[in-house]
Amino acid sequence: MKHISIVIPEGEIILSSVIGSYKIFTRVNDFFVTKRKEPPFHVQLAGQNKDTNLYEGLFSIHPEVRLDDVKKTDLIIIPAVHGADMHAVMKQNEKLISWINQQYMQGAEVASLCVGAFLLASTGIMKGKRCATHWMFADIFRKMFPDVDLVDDKIIVDECGIYSSGGAFSFLNLILYLVEKYCGRETAVLCSKVFEIEIDRVNQSPFAIFTGQKDHEDEQVKNAQIFIENNFREKVTVDQLASMFALSRRNFERRFKKATANTPVEYIQRVKVEAAKKSLEAGRENVNEVMYKVGYNDTKAFRVIFKKITGLSPLEYRNRYSRQLTMN
């Protein structure tokens, strides 16, 4: 029987990531019991305190055990945390971070859900490894943990027993992935049907909204970003941008990449694709009309770039998100 510890961090957490994980693992146990088999999991909630109040006291969690009472576990589930200041959240959970590190050194596997990746990365065990988190927190994560390889387009990342998931309810796909790993495909498919979770989703790019990375102090780069966003329908070149700010192309590209985590060309592409997404969602224009509207003339190039950024072709995206199509 595999011992699973769903930890309860201090401060605000996303309650659904605790309940969802607990429900799926315990339901798997029920499946096995109905077949007169030994339940595969022993699931416990473990916290620093016996009571945790959430959402200004509207909800509370009562962990079964304290962290100090769990001497050894097989799998740690880190739920999504919440807070405007992630540094403060990490400080608040220093004891939990140390405990996770200790358990990992003793052989435990670790899985972070959504923004729980910040706690996972704070342990130091992710250095040089790939990690996923919610796409909205990608820029903050990269700044806090530059030595971690953030994969912000994936829903599931498996790094030899260290697991992480994309944003929000995509954590359910990671839990299904763990169920399949421990109990087989048949059980995972059964869970997906009972809980009505689309199995085998791998990409969170279709959900991402590009708003531009302006949380930096380089004013010239900010001005370049604003120029791109105001003129994306026109042909904007890197040389043009560099000369506007009296910089060499090499220096401009270096500063732009450092400030935004994108090259100038990538930024231009993402601005164009975000505008195309909004037009496709409105559903009033066909794909070619949208392509020309955002400044592309090459159908193949537009399709390749769009799919690289969103994980879907322009037509697939329109079919999924167009208001007019979904209302028919």
Structure, described:
The protein is of the alpha/beta class. It has two domains: 2-205, Class I glutamine amidotransferase (GATase) domain (Rossmann fold), CATH 3.40.50; 219-327, Orthogonal Bundle (Arc Repressor Mutant, subunit A). The chain has 15 helices and eleven strands. The protein has helices at 15-34, 86-92, 94-105, 117-122, 138-144, 171-183, 185-194, 219-230, 238-244, 249-260, 264-282, 287-293, 299-310, 314-321, 323-327, and strands spanning 2-8, 41-47, 52-54, 59-61, 65-66, 75-78, 109-112, 130-131, 149-150, 156-158, 162-165. The strands form three sheets. It has a seven-stranded mixed sheet with strand order 5-2-1-6-7-11-10, with helices on both faces. A two-stranded antiparallel sheet has the order 3-4. A hairpin with a 3-residue loop joins β10 and β11 (162-165). α1 packs parallel to α6, α9 crosses α10 and α11 crosses α14 (314-321). The longest helix has 20 residues, at 15-34. The chain is globular, with a radius of gyration of 23 Å. The protein starts with a strand and ends with a helix. The mean pLDDT is 93.
